[in-house]
Amino acid sequence: RSGFGRANIQDHQVPYLEKTPLALKNRVSLRSTKDRNKACMKEMMDVIACMGKFDQNQSMCEKEITSFNQCYKSFKAKQASMDKIKESGEVPKGQYAKLSGEQMNEYMKKFTPSARKGEFNPDNAYKHMYKYK
Questions:
Q1: Nearest-angstrom CA–CA distance, 27 and 101
Q2: Which of 85, 91, 84 has the alpha carbon at shortest distance from 106?
């Protein structure tokens, strides 16, 4: 039923107008790169549900407890290997590599730095705008 009211505008219908040249900063902020997913959350919830079901009797929940312990051991091993890579200063490679802030800054030093300083572009980037004439 077209013709009733306004239609939504799709993303591809909105033109991009470049007001200032696109430029990356020369640095990356050093935020925490911790994984947001907690370790073995599903297994821990299974253990808690089983313990609640059997009145905190651990002998009835041995299967869930062993699966939780195995998951936690593999998580700690993976975390230790990631810490070792991070401390070595080696930059991870590959399509899905995750870099910390320090690693990304070191990697970006290999390229020509942009003229951008801080939050804003240099003044000559705004010379074609009417406000600055």
A1: 9
A2: 91
- pTM of structure: 0.50
CB–CB of 31/101 below 8 Å? yes
CA 89 from centre of chain: 19
Give the integer Cα–Cα distance in Å for 26 and 51.
53
> Rounded CA gap, 128 and 18, in Å?
12
Taking every pair of C-alpha atoms in the chain, what is the biggest distance, in angstroms? 80
Distance in angstroms (rounded) separating the CA atoms of residues 27 and 118: 9
CA distance 82 to 90: 11
**Alpha-carbon distance 43 to 37, whole Å?**
13
Chain segment 95-129, per-residue pLDDT in tens: 877 777 888 888 888 888 877 776 777 777 777 66
Q: Report pLDDT digits (tens) over 30-45.
A: 776 566 667 889 999 9
